Records
---
Amino acid sequence: MIFGGINILELCAQIPVLMFSLSFHEFFHSFTAYKMGDYSQKSEGRLTLNPLVHIDWIGFFMVLVARFGWAKPVMIDPNNFAKGEGGEADNRRMKRAMALTAAAGPAANLLLALIAAIILAPLSVHYLDVRFFMVFTDIMSAEFQIPMYARVIMMLLGNMLQLNLVLAVFNMLPIPPLDGSKIFSAFLSPRLYFKFIRGSSVTSIIFVVLILTGAADRVLSPIISFLYLGFFYLSLLIL
């Protein structure tokens, strides 16, 4: 059903998937930070999958409308990571913990994508004759003789697979404030790290321009499509 150029059914499938995926991403950040020694995540109530805790509604609306948005960031105190077993400061421990905490979000999205693919692959083979790329675009078409409940399930799973791959790939870009920048900076020397942080404002502006012009989408789309197909065949091997 199309209304004002918007596919209402697809939008209804995207909203719950997006809320859960963003919450799962932020929860894994919080949980990893907590395990690495930053206990403020528990006191701030971020150790939950409750979307109301993690969703920034302006950022959420922007994702639906402009395909670019954000959730509430997990506030981390790196000093809590720097304390070793004896309480002494350890810069290497801090950088390692920061990298692991940053990587936890994209890793969570890849996990959700894999779970979605494992459930979706056999359904796609059964109902769509392996036309896997059509599960979340034309699945509601009358062309396919598929029960309505199966259509809805496949649309939800297809959106979960694609959306989580997008979140994982997008957040791994080494551009502040994305997760990839925190992972990348963990491998830099103090001198290079300082230069990287000083130049972050410029790279962020360039990144926004790439998004607005669609250049970022053209670069990331082939990667996401490759992973999409790869997860499909991997799920078949697992099954």
Note: The beta strands are 2-3, 6-7.
---
Amino acid sequence: METRVATIGIIVENMDSVEPLNSILHDYGKYIIGRMGIPYRNHSVNVICIAVDAPQDEISALSGKIGRLDGISAKTAYSNVVFTHE
């Protein structure tokens, strides 16, 4: 299996979508290296950064599911290094 390291930047503007977001992240928990969340209370948004090590299609699926949530946007940055796991 080949995997890549990537980061997914998430902006949460709709707090009603936090529970579905956390459910999606839980489903992909085996790929998550780390997570950092920053509440920006002055503007009622949350900024979240997720670091993952996963197959390309799993990263794309995760980012797509997050981006389809109401009031949440996500962008992914991929490393150029591909890891091969047996």
Note: The helical segments are 18-27, 56-67.
